[in-house]
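Task: sequence design from structure.
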């Protein structure tokens, strides 16, 4: 499986293993969540066993947002946006799979991980962790662990956000893959492939 690089026309760069599956790039407004008023796009990638309900990788995936400008990123904004996002997704899944989701069961809780400074894409970053309860395609509510890193890529005047999502706890094996994919991201194609270890 050759890896999935992002399009060469993008100012940034990342790489996802070829064993992961992907959707076509979604420009904002997102089809399932048009109320999110950002400008930019979303890339989505799914772990190899995303659809296998008996796999630890079930519903493990990542999405990457590339947003124009520098919108405010904080825990309360993330919670609000993810409620809109996943309620819209629940309605779409209900239409596609023949059920009526109770949208009050969609929840999102995030907190900012303060303390150690971190980088994402070669720039200073914020990091958030939390949980979201969403409807899967089998008419069930599942609780996903969620980790988000966000940075402003100053040269391109955009904000990049990386969302890692999984039923697995943070020490589960899938998070090693999610972390490795996250760490391939660079704001600029001219940046070194990996930051040197201290």
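Answer:
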């Amino acid at each position: 499986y050759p890896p999935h690089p992002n399009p060469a026309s993008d100012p940034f760069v990342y790489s996802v293993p070829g064993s992961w599956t992907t959707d076509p790039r979604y420009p904002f407004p997102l089809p399932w969540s048009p109320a999110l008023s950002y400008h930019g796009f979303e890339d989505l990638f799914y772990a190899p066993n995303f659809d296998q309900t008996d796999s630890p990788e079930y519903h493990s995936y990542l999405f990457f947002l590339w947003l124009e400008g520098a919108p405010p990123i904080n825990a309360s904004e993330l919670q609000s946006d993810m409620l809109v996002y996943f309620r819209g997704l629940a309605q779409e899944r209900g239409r596609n799979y023949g059920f009526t989701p109770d949208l009050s069961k969609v929840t999102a809780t995030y907190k900012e991980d303060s303390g150690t400074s971190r980088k994402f894409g070669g720039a200073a970053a914020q990091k958030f962790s939390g949980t979201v309860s969403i409807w899967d395609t089998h008419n069930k509510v599942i609780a996903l662990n969620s980790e988000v890193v966000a940075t402003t890529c100053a040269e391109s005047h955009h904000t990049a956000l990386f969302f890692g999502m999984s039923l697995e706890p943070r020490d589960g094996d899938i998070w090693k893959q999610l972390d490795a994919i996250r760490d391939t991201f660079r704001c600029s194609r001219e940046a070194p492939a990996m930051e040197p270890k201290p």
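The first helix runs from residue 75 to 97.
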